[in-house]
């Protein structure tokens, strides 16, 4: 019985560790170890259709210049083409986003986005 309890406990710990390490939109949303932050992105062209919604796969840059890839869902394919967006994320999970003017984007982020 004791060996079974140790095996189950070990599987729970390893499984939880793998889920935390591998991440993903849903897992990042509830993971207390992942920090929330604002990321700036520059959309180029039209969004790609995926069912009833359209999505951009974008390289986001935070205020300190760190980059990560995020998936932003929009209702129309032309709604945000060639625009700067400020996206509030937690890992890969997108809470909300808003269109911003170029002058509102931090310089470090703007430099990396224009490359």
TrEMBL record:
- Lineage summary: Bacteria, Bacillati, Bacillota, Bacilli, Bacillales
- List where the protein spans the membrane: none
Q: Which PANTHER family match?
A: HYPOTHETICAL CYTOSOLIC PROTEIN
Origin superkingdom: Bacteria
Pfam families given for it?
Answer: DUF1093 (PF06486)
Official protein name in the record: YxeA family protein
